[in-house]
Amino acid sequence: MTQRRVALGRILARQFVVAASLPLLLVVVLWSATALPDVVQRIERENEATASLMRGQVEAVLSVPQRALEMAAGLIATSAPGSELTRTVLQQALATTPAFASVYVANARGIVEDAAVTANGGINASDLLALDLSSRPYYADARERRALVWSDTFLSPLTGQVTAVLALPVGDRLLIADFSLTGLASELTPRGRAHDAIVIVLDGKGRVIVHPQQRLAAWQENLGYLPLVRAALQGDPGAGEIEVDGQRWLATVAKARTTGWYILVAQPRSELFAPLRRIGLIVGAAVILAFALAVGMALRLARNEVRRYRRLVKAATNFVDQRDQHLEVDLGSEEVHELWRRLRSLLDQLHNETQQASAARRDLLAVLDAATEVSIISTDVDGVIRLFNRGAEKMLGYSAGALVGKATAQTLHDAAELAARSDDLRRRCGRMVAGFDVLAAVAREAGYEVRNWTYIRHDGSRLLVSIAMTAVHDARGELTGFLAIAVDQTQQQRAAELEVSRERAEAASEAKSEFLSRVSHELRTPLNAMLGYAQLLTVGGSQSLSDLQRDRVVRIETAGWHLVRLIDDLLDLSSIESSRIQLKMEAVDVVSVIAEAARLVEPRAAVQGVSVRQLVEPDASRPTPAVLGDQTRLKQVFVNLLSNAVKYNTRRGRVEVAFTQPDDKHLCIRIA
Fold this sequence. Notes:
Layout: H1 8-76, H2 84-96, E1 100-106, E2 112-117, H3 125-128, H4 137-145, E3 149-150, E4 154-155, E5 162-163, E6 165-170, E7 173-179, H5 181-187, E8 198-202, E9 208-210, H6 215-218, H7 227-233, E10 239-244, E11 247-255, E12 262-268, H8 269-272, H9 274-320, H10 334-370, E13 374-379, E14 385-388, H11 390-396, H12 400-403, H13 415-429, H14 437-446, E15 448-456, E16 462-473, E17 479-488, H15 490-538, H16 547-571, H17 573-577, E18 586-588, H18 590-607, E19 611-615, E20 627-629, H19 631-647, E21 654-663, E22 666-671
Parallel strand pairs: 19-21
Antiparallel strand pairs: 1-2, 1-7, 3-6, 4-5, 6-7, 8-9, 8-12, 10-11, 11-12, 13-14, 13-17, 15-16, 16-17, 18-20, 21-22
């Protein structure tokens, strides 16, 4: 993988920018470490003071109805139930306390005896009379504690609205006031510096009693899901950060000392940290300006240094290209000038070594290209082809330019053969072997390997080769690549196949000769007997046989001698195959040969009801000439033709032999 190079100007610019930015960064860090914590602490102190102020305000507001109810209780304690004084006291308490929606008195059994309600409360005082409150939680709690009790919120069955009550025992009676949550919310609006704060009053279960959005109280919204509220309900009120409706707030939760309710005071975090943001913007602008100046100076210094080194590079380039071997360059500093002097010395040495290496490489390539009958392929350690000689081009059909540096050696091999070799190496080595390592694994460990492989040539054809794979190491002994020398094995393989074929042919020839010898021996024995008896019948005298019988005996004898000659021909097959057969060439009368052949097939023709006729067209001016040939073998040809004509004929059919002579040199014989 080629490493990415970075320009000198960029490197110097980075270094100069970093050097210039470090003081600025140090200033910012020191300021952040000293000023920011102080600002944050100040904000937290202001928030705590605001929360304390709001909590005092809320508790003061909540103490007003408590004191009003206590005053009314003192007056009612001296009045009789149902008296005019009791009703007057209830009306006064209702009129002087806007937070009250109704005030009523219950007897010892929890039955409401006297009541007073506001005009817009939605109910009448008569609706409350005779109402049984004994099952209400606050009733039992107040009578048990014998002290003033603040209830949690609940849905009033009379008004259908969420409400809370304040209950105070008066002897064996109970004085009760229903709160107007809307009126209570109007009295808890933050004032002064806390105009951005919100105040939320929660009951003992975390349900909203008072909220800037008072509809949440009507819905009995429960804020117990907030971690800060949940901790307060569990007895650990405190301050922290909450998120409501996607906005962050710094909040404090405190428990009211008298009511048992919880007061949540929250201020927007964005407003509290606005001064800090303004300070940060000012400081940031100053830092950015200073940073821009530092970057400008750094870039200017970097450009000056880059110009100096570019002069050095230009001088080195001219020296390497031999355009100016004696150039003296003013590089501006003693160190760079010394660098240039040493560089020139190294360039001289490198130039000499390069010329020597080039000459050696040319000699090596000439030697390799001279081996046109041998494929020589050199690769790096990953199998990428680095050398592809002319022998490889001739053997595989590829050009060196198409493969060198672009393809790997395994692309020239048969994929199925590589897969089989990979499985074999995996079983031998106990690990997975894939890719180019399939070809080079053994050579990598042992130094070399000789093995037969199949090359896939450029035209898709396959070529069997013997490859000697050798690992190549440098002077330090490190592996630098592999050298694959391949020799075409096609001729050797073909020679081996031909040798096997020859051995098989010789074996078949010997078997055939033995077979023919056995067959000829078995056939000669009965033929000799047949010919002997035929001769005895012939020499027995004219009176012993009739003319027809004598004719038939002659035919038997003629056929017998024909078979003898055929057996002799079979024995001469070895001579025929070795092209040493000797034919007895002589003038042969074709008509007589065909007539003799016809007599040999007449018995079989008579059995099948087929007649054989010889249609000779005599020509007195041009008699049928004799032909040059071997009479025995020519007769054998006609016997075979006539036998086939009889064999494949129909019942009561006929076989006709006709002669024509198109010219003086040719004779045409037609068998139909």
